[in-house]
Amino acid sequence: MPPLLNASGCLDALAAPDVARSLDAFVTKTVTPLRRDGNAPVRIAEIDCGMLNTIGLANPGLDDFVCDTLPRLLELGVPVWVSVGGFRAGDYAESCARLDDEGVEAIELNVSCPNVESPVEATEEIVAAARAATAKPLFTKLSPQLPDVAAVALAAARAGTDGLSLVNTLRGLALDPRTLAPVLSTATGGVSGPVLRPVALAAVHACYAATGLPIVGMGGVETGRHALDLIAAGASACALGTILFRDPDAPARVRAELARTAFRLGLEDPLAARGLAHREAERPLPSETKIPAKVN
C-alpha cells in the first residue's frame, strides 16, 4: 500500500492528533528561518472548484519550531516531514542544517509557494545547498505553473533531491459577488482542490518520465480512485489536502477505496499500478474481479 500523507499546511497535527496518526507521515506547515506573520485577512476563501488561500507562510520561525512545536509533533508517534521555505538558497541550507540532528523523517523543500516571491528559478541552487547541509531525505515541492516542470525536476535531481512533491497550488482570483472586489487581501492566492487533479496528473506523469524519482502526488485527491490515478502516472505516495478540511476521516476512507479500486482492476497492491499510464494502451486491465466485502 502506498504511503498516505497530508499536503503541507492542510492539517494541524497538534489540534487534530487522531487525524495525523491516521496518516503514514505528517508534513508540517512550511517553516522559515525567521518568524513570519503572513498576509493580512482575508486569507482563505471557498470557491466552486475548491479553496483559495493566501496564508503567506505564517510560522513561528525555525528556533521556536524546533524548540517548541517539533518535540510535541514527535510525541504523536507518526513520522514527521518538515516543510522548509525561504527567499534564498542560504535560508534552506540553514533550516536543513538545524533539522539534521532532529528526529524528523524527511525534509520537504517548498520552492513553489504562490503567495510569496517564488525562488523556482534557483531550484538547482536551493537543492544543492540543502543537500550539502543535511543527510535527511529531501523532497522538492514544485509549482504546476512552471513552463517546463520536468526540466526543473531534472535540475532538482542533478542537485541531489531524493524525491519530488507534486504539485503545489495554482494562482487564482475570486471576487466578492456583491462588491466585485477581490475576496482575498492579496487579491490572488493559491487554488487547491478538485481543479488541480488533471494538473497534478500531468506534472507527475512528466516528472516520472523525466527523472524516475519517488514522487508524492497531490492535488485534489478526494477518493481512492484519484490516488490510484496519481500512482499510475508515476507517484509512489499520495497526499491529501483540501479534503481534510471537510472530511477529517478521509485518510482511512481513501486508503480503503484505494485498495478496493486496485483489487477491482486485478492488482494485488495499488503500487503495482505505478507507471502504468506510461505503457502503450494495448488492453484494459480486468474490471470484473469480485470485490470482497472488506479489504484491510
Overall description:
There is one protein chain. This protein has 296 residues and is of the alpha/beta class. The chain has a single domain (4-278), classed as TIM Barrel (Alpha-Beta Barrel), CATH 3.20.20. It has helices at residues 17-21, 62-74, 89-99, 123-133, 149-159, 197-211, 224-233, 243-246, 250-264, and strands spanning 4-6, 26-27, 44-47, 50-53, 80-84, 106-110, 138-141, 163-166, 170-173, 188-192, 215-218, 237-240. The strands form two sheets. An eight-stranded parallel sheet has the order 1-12-11-8-7-6-5-2. Strands 3-4-10-9 form a four-stranded antiparallel sheet, with no helix packed on it. Helix 5 (149-159) packs across helix 6 and helix 7 packs across helix 9 (250-264). Residues 115-119 and 287-296 have low confidence and may be disordered.
